[in-house]
Specification:
Largest sheet: 2 strands, antiparallel
Protein name: Small CPxCG-related zinc finger protein
Helix content: 10-25%
Bound molecules: zinc ion
InterPro entries: DUF7576 (IPR055998)
Organism: Halostagnicola larsenii XH-48
Number of domains: 1
Structural class: alpha+beta
Strand content: 25-35%
Distance between the termini: 41 Å
Number of strands: 2
Radius of gyration: 12 Å
Pfam families: DUF7576 (PF24461)
Shape: globular
Amino acid sequence: MTDSPDDDGPRCDNCGDPIEASPNRRVVTNLEDDEAAYSNFCDDDCLEEWQS
Ligand SMILES: [Zn+2]
């Protein structure tokens, strides 16, 4: 059983970079149609860009 290496983790919703296990990463929870959706970001800068 092997997972595709191209699909092994979340990507930044702002810049599309793979999210590493970094202390700077941010995860935002959104409610869309009563379902929780998670947005991942590299750091605060990407989060602020995405929100603006
Ligand atoms: Zn980013």
